[in-house]
Write a structure and sequence with these properties.
With 557 residues, this protein is of the alpha/beta class. The longest helix is centred in the last third of the chain and has 20 residues, at 525-544.
């Protein structure tokens, strides 16, 4: 039973107002001693343009780190990277049990074994339909259709009401592999009484209903059968239904499947252990590819998002050591482009087309379907569950705003527009935002996690835009210049529009600036540094139109 001081709250720490980094916190109890469960702990992909040198982003869990003694566990809805990808980095800061299905645990363990130094996370297996009790929370894993096996919504029961956290889902009556999203099960939850529905917003801007995964499988089989030469298919490695569809398409016309890419290897291994690839011919290694006839091979490739180090990018630029494509071969992009990756994917497509390779995408053919619900599917979920409160989640601001309006149109009495860091009180009393907690992003920079306020990233952006000038000057105790200053520049053009050397212009500016300082001023290193820096930046701007960063080193001799 709930006491008069108990509250049920929802605190998103990532995934609202952005794509990726999903981390949703649920709390129960008095304000000063709540107990918590965290749903998912995902990563996001950084844009090289805005985050040079950074590949991955993680939610900043500093609030939860302070509350760690009250954290009962981490609940994983499914094994996509935007839901589990931050665990290896952030779990050591929390050190609580992580509950996940067999497939998700398999992927987490396979990755750990392939990465030296990765922590051994306390993983505890749950099955679809299972209920577990964590303090005041009773959590039921509810199977849903999605683009990865063993996806689940979570029915989180508390003394103050039932919250339904959908995770990622869609409606698909013929999913080719895996579960459906059951009207019977969700209607039962609606009959029980859903206090709040925290729901996927990814495809709310699209009307209608998503096609079935089985329709994609049928079209892939036709494309493979009609291809006169090699076929390469790139897709999200985690989409096991798609991998199986490609393998069955290949078998139907006597082709062998070659798997290329570490992420694909990991998924194939775990999917095979879980029985999702039973009754298929054995997948072949990349070293076999070159010995197979052109009309007897299908390659499954990583790199559908334009990742420069993935298999597809290296093949497109003809730099892969084992896999090559020729004019007349076919590449099928059986995926959608995640926002922010358009440039990289476009470059790969152009490279392929330039070499005479046929490119097929979901813009012209049914080679991909989304794993997220469109408007008709969302409407069905609202009809089945009849929530008192709707909280749009899992999407950028435009998706959340559209979903809020959509939920109101479905007759939901209260719609709460939450964002990362907002504390939403579901019960008791009127549902509303009652507080904010600190949130943000962490960036994986090489082997180091840095905060959003670290100076490294903005400095790299500045240097990428206008370069760096370094000047070293030796000055003795009397203020005399000892030898010629040493000047170097990185990221600047070699010559001005008039053909003058930029380095010579900088060296002349340094000399003139030093000559213009009195001997007493030259004895003050800070005065010399400031004068030279200002003069160099001004001179380069006059010659080039940009002001570089300027580092001045004074050596006292």
């Amino acid at each position: 039973m709930a006491s008069s001081q108990d509250e049920l709250v929802f605190v998103p720490l990532g995934g609202l107002g952005e794509i990726g980094m999903n981390a949703a916190l649920y709390g129960f109890g008095p304000e000063d001693r709540r107990q918590w469960v965290l749903v998912d702990c995902g990563m996001g992909f950084a844009s090289e343009e805005h985050m040079p040198g950074v590949d991955l982003m993680f939610p900043d869990l500093r609030f939860l780190e302070d509350e760690r003694r009250n954290l009962l566990g981490i609940l994983i809805t499914h094994a996509h990277e935007d839901h589990i990808g931050a665990l290896a980095e952030l779990w050591p800061r929390l050190r609580v049990p992580v509950y996940a299905t067999r497939f998700a645990i398999g992927l987490l363990e396979t990755r750990r074994l392939s990465e030296p130094g990765a922590p051994k996370v306390d993983l505890r297996e749950v099955a679809a339909g299972q209920r577990l009790t964590l303090g005041p929370f009773e959590v039921e894993y509810v199977p849903v259709a999605h683009s990865i096996p063993e996806s689940n919504a979570l029915a989180i029961r508390t003394p103050l009401g039932l919250v339904l956290h959908t995770g990622d889902w869609k409606l698909d009556d013929t999913p080719y592999l895996g579960d459906t999203t059951s009207e019977t099960v969700f209607s039962r939850l609606g009959d029980e009484g859903v206090l709040a529905l925290v729901c996927d917003s990814t495809n709310v801007v699209r009307d209608g209903r998503s096609p079935s995964e089985s329709e994609v499988a049928k079209r892939l089989a036709e494309l493979v059968a009609d291809a006169p030469h090699r076929v390469a298919v790139t897709t999200f490695a985690s989409n096991v239904a798609r991998l199986r569809a490609v393998a069955e398409s290949a078998r139907a016309c006597g082709r062998e499947v070659v798997v290329v890419g570490r992420a694909m290897d990991r998924v194939v291994q775990v999917a095979s252990e879980c029985g999702y690839l039973d009754d298929l011919p054995e997948f072949r290694r990349p070293e076999v590819y070159g010995y197979l006839p052109r009309d007897k091979v299908v390659a499954l490739l990583t790199g559908s998002q334009g990742e420069p180090r993935a298999a597809l990018a290296r093949i497109a630029s003809n730099e892969h050591p084992e896999i090559a494509l020729s004019p007349g071969d076919k590449v099928i992009f059986s995926s959608r482009v995640i926002p922010g990756n358009e440039r990289g994917v476009g470059q790969i497509m152009n490279d392929l087309v330039r070499r005479g390779i046929d490119v097929i995408t979901d813009r012209t053919d049914l080679v991909h379907v989304s794993g997220h619900p469109r408007q008709d599917e969302l409407a069905a979920m609202y009809r089945w569950t009849r929530p008192r409160i709707a909280v749009p989640a899992h999407g950028e601001d435009v998706h959340l705003a559209e979903h809020a309006a959509f939920a109101k149109a479905q007759g939901v009495p209260i719609v709460v527009k939450a964002r990362n860091g907002t504390v939403v009180r579901f019960a008791p009393g009127k549902p509303e935002i009652v507080d904010d907690v600190p949130t943000g992003r962490l960036y994986k920079d090489g082997d180091i996690l840095i905060g959003a306020g670290d100076r490294a990233i903005p400095e790299r952006r500045r240097w990428a835009f206008a370069g760096v000038v370094s000047v070293a000057i030796a000055i003795d105790k009397r203020g005399e210049i000892a030898g010629d200053p040493v000047v170097d520049a990185v990221g600047l053009p070699s010559v001005t529009r008039q053909g003058e050397s930029i380095l010579e212009r900088i060296a002349d500016t340094v000399g003139q600036t030093l000559d213009g300082l009195s001997r007493s001023k030259r004895r003050d290193p800070e005065t010399v540094e400031n004068a030279v820096e200002r003069a160099v930046r001004a001179a380069v701007q006059q010659a080039w139109g940009k002001k570089p960063t300027c580092h001045v080193l004074i050596v006292e001799v």
